[in-house]
């Protein structure tokens, strides 16, 4: 897990930088890649009410799509939630008065699936620690979903929280093996095997994939390696994947307009960081011209997601085909009815089916009104939401 979310429940947010991390929460590394991603999405979903509400909820189908599960594979989802409840988080730190505090907690105190909703909770002690940016850092999910290796994501999580100090500090190899989830393996008792199979591949993926660059250093006793640390610096080439804390945008006029509409502080900063003030301002003007809109915030979110306005130009060629235009209208309405998290999951699920670079770029630009993907979009929504086009005749 890691820093603070910010991308429309798909991204994450890095809060104001702390001068010093006073502690680290060590999480057992024996999580699959999907379990680790699941843990981060659950934390992101709960973060704003982490200490004020005892339990949290998220649509189970959306959760599956966000993590990459088959949305009907509840067996896998149940197993992963069970794994999180059985995984231990441990901390050893100084409290605000300088006293030593050790603690241990399961990652989730409970989780239930009922009526298509996943409800879950954290222990109060762990929630307090995870909500404090001096202790814990949330991971940007834009970065998380680029990882293909569980070891690499685990290493990134455990290094990213120390980016401001430039080093993880020395870890014993026993602790490092535990963080990577390979403790108890006789094979990885050999540093040669640990280095070749875990450290080198994980470091390479972190440096290629994420917003930090890390370099391992080892310490020996005699000829045997006993400790390891990672030197950390920001990766300027991928800094765009990370989000600043948004403190500056709070003083802008566009931020103020968003807040007046009822957009939350976090979501307003996410939109401004992801889309830029100019684009958000343009969408605000566009949404302001619409009549009979039930939810201005929901419509604005759909406009930002789907690039409404640009889409008006994009779907001009289909105007003559009323049946197709009506189907695309149904798609727009379906997208608008989805939550921000669901919309992001829907788009990524669709993009997984598109391999041609030109078509992917067209979808990135025009969203669900992409001219190059009209047929694929209609087929996707017909399967995704059976009956969505009922009552529309013609091709």
UniProtKB/TrEMBL annotation:
GO terms for molecular function: DNA-directed DNA polymerase activity. It comes from the Bacteria. InterPro entries: Initiator_Rep_WH1, WH-like_DNA-bd_sf, WH_DNA-bd_sf. Pfam families: Rep3_C (PF21205), Rep3_N (PF01051). Residues 18-159 form the Initiator Rep protein WH1 domain. One of its GO terms (biological process) is DNA replication initiation. Belongs to the initiator RepB protein family. This is Initiator Replication protein.
């Amino acid at each position: 897990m890691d820093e603070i979310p910010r991308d429309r429940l798909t991204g994450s947010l890095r809060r104001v930088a702390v001068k010093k991390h006073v502690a680290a929460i060590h999480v057992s590394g024996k999580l699959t890649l999907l379990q680790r991603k699941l843990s981060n999405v659950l934390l992101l979903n709960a973060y704003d009410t982490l200490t004020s509400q005892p339990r949290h909820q998220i649509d189970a189908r959306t959760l599956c799509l966000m993590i990459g599960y088959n949305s009907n594979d509840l067996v896998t989802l149940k197993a992963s939630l069970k794994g999180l409840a059985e995984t231990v988080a441990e901390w050893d730190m100084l409290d605000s008065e300088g006293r030593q505090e050790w603690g241990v907690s399961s990652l989730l105190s409970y989780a239930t699936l009922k009526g298509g909703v996943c409800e879950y909770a954290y222990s109060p002690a762990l929630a307090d620690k995870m909500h404090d940016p001096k202790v814990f850092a949330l991971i940007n999910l834009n970065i998380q979903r680029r990882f293909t290796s569980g070891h690499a994501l685990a290493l990134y999580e455990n290094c990213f929280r120390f980016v401001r100090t430039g080093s993880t500090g020395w870890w014993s190899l026993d602790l490092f093996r535990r963080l990577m989830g390979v403790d108890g393996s006789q094979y990885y008792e050999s540093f040669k095997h640990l280095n070749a199979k875990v450290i080198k591949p994980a470091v390479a993926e972190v440096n290629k994939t994420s917003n930090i660059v890390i370099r391992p250093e080892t310490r020996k006793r005699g000829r045997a390696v006993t400790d390891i640390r990672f030197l950390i610096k920001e990766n300027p080439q991928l800094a765009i994947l990370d989000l600043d804390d948004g403190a500056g945008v709070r003083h802008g006029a566009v931020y103020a307009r968003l807040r007046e509409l009822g957009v939350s502080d976090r979501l307003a900063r996410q939109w401004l960081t992801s889309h830029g003030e100019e684009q958000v301002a343009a969408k605000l003007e566009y949404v302001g011209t619409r009549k009979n809109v039930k939810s201005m915030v929901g419509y604005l979110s759909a406009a930002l997601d789907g690039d409404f306005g640009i889409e008006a130009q994009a779907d001009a060629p289909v105007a003559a085909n009323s049946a197709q235009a009506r189907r695309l209208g149904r798609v727009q309405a379906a997208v608008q009815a989805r939550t921000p998290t669901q919309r992001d999951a829907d788009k990524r699920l669709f993009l997984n089916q598109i391999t041609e670079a030109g078509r992917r770029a067209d979808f990135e630009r025009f969203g669900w009104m992409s001219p190059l993907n009209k047929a694929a979009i209609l087929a996707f929504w017909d399967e995704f939401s059976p009956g969505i086009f009922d009552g529309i005749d013609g091709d």
